[in-house]
Amino acid sequence: MKMKAAYTLLGILSDFSQKKVKAYLDEELDMWARRGVHGHFSGKHPWALGDECIVELMADIVGARKEEVALMNGLTVNLHLQMYAVESQLQLHGLDVEKCMLMIQPRKGEETLRIEDILDIIEKEGDSVAVILLSGVQYYTGQLFDIPRITKAGQEKGCYVGFDLAHAAGNIELHLHDWGVDFACWCSYKYLNSGAGGLAGAYIHEKHSQTIKPALIGWWGHEFKTRFLMENKLQLSPGINGFRLSNPPILLVCALHASLEVFGQTTMKALRRKSILLTGYLEYLIKHYYSEDKANPEKPFVKIITPPKTEERGCQLTLVFSVPIKSVFKELEKRGVACDMREPNALRVAPVPLYNSFHDVHRFIEILGSAITSAKQTANNAATS
């Protein structure tokens, strides 16, 4: 049985949204052929307003108000526009990265960060910190951070608090507005399924809509009602919309639209409920079949480095192996499983509730055993050759 690319973090669309993507793309290409430039302001979804037609669907997923969210650019571009692609921005302003960027590391012998250590650093260093930027879900370990507690602690010290939600959007429940998060950004080609290079999202809380202005301004940040008058007088849109640079790429809008409509047929609460069960089932089976057996040191084993508490992880489990990981990865690919290897020694496995089933998880566990056996045999052959 060939698996359906079940565990990739690269964003596999369901059959339904794949068909919708093709239909939407064909529709826009047909409009380009028939109307040319006039498509910008005519038709069901005028190109000049394409992103605004779907922004409410995105806002629902991240728990924000429509006017707090913009769909634009790619993730790193949005990090720069919000002045928080930290290391390069420090260098750009002539600052010493070693002195001005405070990094948080796990305790010795541990893989993930403790919330008490994060809060302790904020308490000790917060008075000298301008911006706190963390991931919502850490890409390597799959650790989910306590966004509301970190936000509250940072703001009490007068810091702006923001999150890179690349691995969180579409994966966990988010309530950015209610949590009071100052800013955030995310890509859409992971759990949001828009395809490689898909249109990214950005958020600024409405409390900053009149006070925070973009450092780099593009003409699409201009108020729509006067944007095309070309009077050379800036009328900046408030909040995140003032950070937009250029008109939206309509083909990327189409791909994202198709996926967001699928999300619109359910809720993140329902997806999260299934996700907890699905990942919990995967965790149980891995521990049952592949835990370390000290009575049998020759038996290959798998270790999960993602936190065991459901409130501290999304759907991803990060695995490390007692046998060479590259061989395991190769053997899994041979068997039709799409997952993701990260150096130095991690395999990221994510049963996504939108399109994965409990049967997928069970089948993966069977295939994993075969892959580990083959990887061990390859290692033994290499050792004796």
Strand content: 5-15%
Query: Structural class per helix/strand content?
Result: alpha+beta
CA-to-CA gap between the ends? 33 Å
Poorly predicted residue ranges: 1-13
Net shape:
globular
Major sheet, described briefly? 5 strands, mixed
* Overall mean pLDDT: 90
The order of strands across the largest sheet is: 1-5-4-3-2
Q: What's the number of extended β-strand segments? A: 9
In N-to-C order, the SSE pattern is: HHEHHHHEHEHEEHHHEEHEEH
Approximate helicity band: 25-40%
Radius of gyration, taken over Cα atoms and rounded to an integer in Å: 23 Å
Function: Catalyzes the cleavage of L-kynurenine (L-Kyn) and L-3-hydroxykynurenine (L-3OHKyn) into anthranilic acid (AA) and 3-hydroxyanthranilic acid (3-OHAA), respectively.
EC number: 3.7.1.3
GO molecular function, one term: kynureninase activity
Pathway: Amino-acid degradation; L-kynurenine degradation; L-alanine and anthranilate from L-kynurenine: step 1/1; Cofactor biosynthesis; NAD(+) biosynthesis; quinolinate from L-kynurenine: step 2/3
Report what the structure shows.
One of its GO terms (biological process) is anthranilate metabolic process. Pyridoxal 5'-phosphate binds at residues 75-76, 135, 164, 167, 189, 219, 247. Its EC number is 3.7.1.3. There is one protein chain. The protein has 385 residues and is of the alpha+beta class. 39% of the residues lie in helices and 9% in strands. It has 13 helices and nine strands. The strands form two sheets. It has a five-stranded mixed sheet, sandwiched between helices. A four-stranded antiparallel sheet has the order 6-7-9-8, with helices on one face. Helix 8 links the parallel strand 3 and strand 4. Helix 6 packs parallel to helix 7 (147-156), helix 11 (268-290) runs parallel beside helix 13 (358-384) and helix 12 crosses helix 13. The two termini are 33 Å apart. Mean pLDDT is 90; it is low at 1-13.
